[in-house]
Write a structure and sequence with these properties.
By secondary structure, the chain is mostly helical. Helices cover 73% and strands 0% of the residues.
Length: 277
Amino acid sequence: MTPDDYCADKVARSGSSFYYSFRLLTPERRAAINALYAFCREVDDVVDEVSDPDVARVTLAWWRTEIGAVYAGKPQHPVALALQSAVSRYGLKQAHLQTVIDGMQMDLEKVRYVDFTELETYCDSVAGAVGLMSAEIFGYEEPATRNYARELGIAFQLTNIIRDVGEDARRGRIYLPQNEIARFGVAPSDVLRAKMSPGFVELMRFEVDRARGWYDEALSKLPTRDRHSQRAGLAMAAIYRTLLDEIARDGYRVLDRRIALTPVRKLWIATRAAWRP
């Protein structure tokens, strides 16, 4: 199995909504975005699947070194080998890849976020930086597209946080800002115990509305001339916004279930969004 095949297989097996938008890209761009996504999955799995925090820290430190090796021409891991080609072809910045690892490091050190300012810093690290790199892979002409890409990445991460409230709580993590939880009369222990309440529903309605606002703001910054080249990102946005709609339609019941769209529906949404004028 080649490094590119390894990354493509990791993307396909993940079941991610991104898989359907990646299919819209040329083979070269698809291989590059697969490598970037596989890297994000590798470092995210360190945090989610390694039970010993010290081992997780050592593994993330190894990944920092491995990313350095990508730029020195001596990577070892299949994902790093695939990234080497993407870095060379699309000029991905080492600082952005290292920033993603910074965000994963935050996951090892923090299980609560005081306010949205703190949470935005986290989202910018684990997703805003990915948005910037994705824009380079997709291609653009207008510098303003970078602003769109960063904010769209944050919107994706906010959607993930909303979708995964219950799953994260079972790991002892609450990403929802603590001051907002308190504002709606919800106790952190209620989230950890998956206790639904009218206050929790209102809290989640607020979080969903804010995420929608991030999508609106991001899309307003995408120059018309770059819309076609960034169609994979637009397809992702359409899928994720539909997911937010489904969460709202289901009564914001994210504590005891993981709401998802079917593969066929994701493909249909991605295709329609990509070719919309």
